[in-house]
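Today's session is about reading a structure prediction critically. Students often jump straight to the picture, but the first step is always the sequence itself: look for stretches that repeat, for charged clusters, for runs of hydrophobic residues. Only then move on to the predicted structure, which in these notes is written as discrete structure tokens rather than atom positions. Here is the chain we will use throughout the hour.
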Amino acid sequence: MELLPKDLLSQELLAIIGMIAIVGTIIFAVLLFIGLILAYIIFRNKKIVRFLSSTFGLVIIKILLFILDLLYLPSRKIISLLGGNDKMIDMVNVEMRNTLLKNRFSEVPYEDRIVVLPQCLRDLNCPVRFSSVGGAQCAGCGKCKIFEISERAKELGYKGVYIALGSGFVRRTIKEVRPKAIVGVACPSELNWGILEFSNKGLPCQGVLLLRDGCVETDVDLEELFCVMEMYQNGSERDREN
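Below is the predicted structure for this chain, in token form.
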């Protein structure tokens, strides 16, 4: 029996859909491969980000960041299956977001910035009590690095240092305090998505990764954090002194 025009149309439509699916799969695989390769290169050598930003402007970084955001879950899954560091994507994204936002951040005066720290930086014997609404202020006992960070922030004239219990507290604090820029310290995934969320709301952020993450007594590189906090206009205060 001869095929009716309707049957021919159905077959042609299915063929087109099949072709689109194949092309889409190929594009997905190519983007995923390129993203993973470049992410690994940056993960091994962070100077690549500065090279890309100085050579091509910020265009290449924006494109790569778009790819890694778009393919975030499959990228992490593949890295995990291959036995790699599944935090690599977040760490690379933080580095690129910092680069993209660095100039805008450095233009904000110290008095319009805040520092947000995770509560896990505290010493186990920290005397401060927390509340989900008010968070906590450093008690000045000097048992952990939060004291040094708070003192440096005061010297620079920062709007405040906040010890957060979670993302909900950070959102409430930003709504109430209304800073114009944020310095955040956190583990890779929280820092990556935190910078994305608040930068999309018009707040330039700079993130510093914890040296050792976990639920208690984590650690941060004070020299790296202070360099970020001191960043102003064309560089940090420390850079100008040198």
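Discussion point for the tutorial: The two ends are 87 Å apart (CA to CA).
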